[in-house]
Amino acid sequence: MNMMSSIAASSTVLGLFMMLGIVFANSYMVNNGNFGSRERKHSVSYKYDRIGEINKECAFVLQSAAELKPDDSRLYTIKEELSFLNGDWWQELNGAGAPLMPFDDRELLGSSIDKRSPLNLVSFWVTDVDRRHQSKNSIFVSGLLQMGITLEGLLSEKPFEGSPRFDIWPGHSQLSINFQGIYTESKKNHGERVMCLLGSTVLPSRQPDSGDPWGWVKEFGYTNQPLLTQDDQMILVLRYPRMLTLASRAIRGSMRSLNPKSNLKYFDELHMSSWLTTSANYQFTSENLVSRACDPYPYKDSLLNGEIDIYKGLDFCVILERFTHQEALTILPNWKCNGTDEFCRKLGPFVSDKEINATDGSFRNVKLVLQDVRCENMTSKENAGVVRVSSVFRAVPPSENQFTAAQRTGLSNMTLSAEGIWKSSSGQLCMVGCSGFVDGDGNGCDTRICLYVPLSFSIKQRSILLGTLSSIERTTRSYFPLAFEKLVRTAELWDQYTTSHPYYKYSKIEAASAVFERDEPFNIGTVIKKSLLKFPKLEDMEKFPYSLSLLSEDLTLHIPAAPDPFPSSFPTKTDLELEILSLGPLFGHYWLTHNVSTFKKENPYQDVGEYTEKQLLINVSAQLNLVGNQYTNFSSLSVEGIYDPHVGKMYLIGCRDVRASWKILYESMDLEAGLDCLVEVVVSYPPTTARWLVNPTARISIVSQRNEDDPLYFVPIKLQTVPIMYRKQREDILSRRGVEGILRILTLSTAIACILNQLFYIRDNMESAPYVSLVMLGVQALGYTLPLITGAEALFRKAATEFNDNESYDLQNSQWTRVIDYTVKFLVLVAFSLTLRLCQKVWKSRIRMLTRTPLEPHRVPSDKKVLFSTLFIHIAGYILVLIVHYVNTSYKPLQTAHFIDSTGYTHAIREWETELEEYLGLVQDFFLLPQVIANLMWRIHVKPLGKLYYFGITSIRLLPHIYDYVRSPIPNPYFSEEYEFVNPRMDFYSKFGDIAIPIVAILLVLAVYIQQRWNYKKLSQTLILGQRKLLPLGSKVYERLPSVSFEAELASGVNRNPTSGKEHDPE
């Protein structure tokens, strides 16, 4: 072996190990960007350099300040107790007032749909308490105030203390102010705690002599360079209650400018409100107010009539906090009200704005949130089972984000501060509610609140929390009792609540059976369907409750849907939510803590050898929601009926939560508990078997039984979901990736064997080596290079994240999956290296041919024309694909889609990029095209490719299409690229592509086989159309020399070994 061959072999091996190092080293990299480093906290020194000014401006506070006791524990909790978040602030601007800051409302003005109102929020942090300068009646403190006007978001994050700033962008303005001043405790107002502070900030500048002082806000680019002026002439006074009680919960504040009105920095006085944080202990001292609302206990309201079983366990407060934390309650319409319009459309004790009044008493999308829920168990024997409860009720308008509202702490006429008692004897929580700010005498505490946690459910009772707000004064009540609820969700049925055994009472089974009889006529099609197709059913009768729970999971739907049949125009987005509430005797899901004996008693299949089809019907109840602009009247639909596992259909009666005017509801005499129960619903599920024969989508039909002239009538609704996947099919996804990984290993191993066979074939047929197309080999190398690079990148990202996540047995952290991935990447690397070796041998054989005939370079095969011809064909094909794709998707709006891959990264998808990626796969499928073109151009009389090579590689390229054609058509929602082996969402893996591409590839194989079996002369004589030959006569451009002289010259010219009579590959 000569020196050049040794260097080439060494470089190949070295390149192999270097690429192995790149791929596998990235797999074990640790993201140590934060290693050895900790977040450095900015240290801020607090200066009290305005003591003289503070004493002067805060003299009115110091005059009524009481002496501070050094041993008072409250002095050591100032930072925690006196800070507050997301309170309210407002300015009373009379006429041409002086507002504090501008707000860019162009988002609201430019949209007629957006009904949101900006929120004025304020947060305050006590940043320092300087006890070194403590006097008899005051302590110096520093604070940071942040104020904002915003359409979205909160002020929960503490800004940087170093320097105040003002920020503004469309829909949001915020200002931070640094303060220093004094903390005192007053002799007045029951010893309230007072802070008087002087502030320093940068204010947005006003334009003088202008009707619009914030004209610069309308200029382009203002967000980068707002006009600011320094101001330190402002005073803030915050007043806190000494004790946190029902009557003294509020934090009150005011801030005013010390500048004269003629100064452009002057602003009108503004006011603030909030309440003490959870670090302050609540004192239950309002027994008189509670007894005024609740005596005699329990209060006899409309809900306490014995029709609903109520929770009476000892974990009431735990359940109440869990069901109300960051959750919103639904306010029900006044469907029983028969008073004046003003009386019936009023939102209980709350002040209704224009947006709420526009609902006309239906209160559509008006919510109620419970905040700061606190409980105290009474320990005395006579009060056993008695819990005292306090909370704040906040009404939320339709346009306000309910999660933002749950974080607000401002008190206003949209809030009720409440306190009351709960007793296990009745299960009723009775409270007194005080609107807005409350004085010491309890004025404004004229609302009674009754709240329950039901245990029994039905089609008309789906509330896991249920309550009313009513006026204590019956003679002078100004509003109709306001009812509210929180609908039950299956996911919440666990923990202490389920140990009390909630249950469901079926009441519409007979009406649903009538729907079943009408929808199931006896015919041959139904018999065939029942005998051939299988649908979700109970799997194990011995484990009856567990089987019910699994079936409930399969019947639950959370999936997009579209009108059925699919419209010609692109439909608006609709999300279908069908949450199974009960199935047979099972309510919710089966947990091991349930009493299994209960299910044994109610198991209809226990000790039954044979049963009829009707006995196999299963009672079912569910909650159906259609989320979409065109289904606003279906905010909630309670359904109940039967499920037939033979045909996979639910026959249901629905009760609709109608959000119409209170007048329409009152005049509709056939409502049941305010619900329209004249609704029929049929849900059809796809089969679990023969998924390749049946479209795996669910269909829903919703029909009103009312006459068309009835105001509660609606047109029939028919929907079809996107393909759904049952539980076992989802489990198949996890195992299928492993199976497909093994398939990739087998196919890559076969490809490596084919490439090795071609290397041996060239060694034994040296005269054929120059006629192997380098363009064909380049296409093959490109096919191995792209997944190799992207695979290395994926490994790098996973290595950076896997050490930050908790270890769990999932798809990403499965050791078996990793072994398969690493094996695949190793085999890809080997196949790529062997393909490069094949290119090297072909290239060197052409160099030897050129050195043998230096005066006739045209005799050496050249891939230049082959490359141009191949590029032309593929570019034309790609343009044709884009045109076809555009015609097929022209009805869809132009958009850039996004997907989340299996590692959680979000990526944008552009259609032309997707089509290009797909077409690159098509180029690899047609890898023989350059060889066919080259054989025609070079007019070969040899056999460049071994049969095993081009037959084997083609078979491997066609295997994904065959696999895709015979497998289930259900898409996989869990991975960005569907399965590793094949992606059926791509156009080239559609059913047409799965047939057309293999046919073309097989034709290319046959073309190569015929070209190599017959020489060019025989082929040109055979392909005759009439009197014309389809191929031109052969030429001597690529005429090869006799085989013996060619091999002898190679042996003498390269090996330089005259004693060796054996022919061999010098490489």
UniProtKB/TrEMBL annotation:
It comes from the Eukaryota. One of its GO terms (molecular function) is ubiquitin protein ligase activity. The chain crosses the membrane at residues 741-762, 774-796, 816-839, 866-887, 988-1010. Pathway: Protein modification; protein ubiquitination. It is a multi-pass membrane protein. Residues 729-1018 form the SWEET-like domain. Pfam families: DUF2921, DUF2921_N. Its EC number is 2.3.2.27. The keyword Transmembrane applies. One of its GO terms (cellular component) is endomembrane system. It is an enzyme of class 2 (transferase). Residues 1-25 form the signal peptide. Its main location: membrane. It catalyses: S-ubiquitinyl-[E2 ubiquitin-conjugating enzyme]-L-cysteine + [acceptor protein]-L-lysine = [E2 ubiquitin-conjugating enzyme]-L-cysteine + N(6)-ubiquitinyl-[acceptor protein]-L-lysine. It is found in: Endomembrane system. Keywords: Membrane, Signal, Transferase, Transmembrane, Transmembrane helix, Ubl conjugation pathway. Residues 55-271, 290-480, 521-717 form the DUF2921 domain. This is RING-type E3 ubiquitin transferase. It comes from Sesamum angolense.
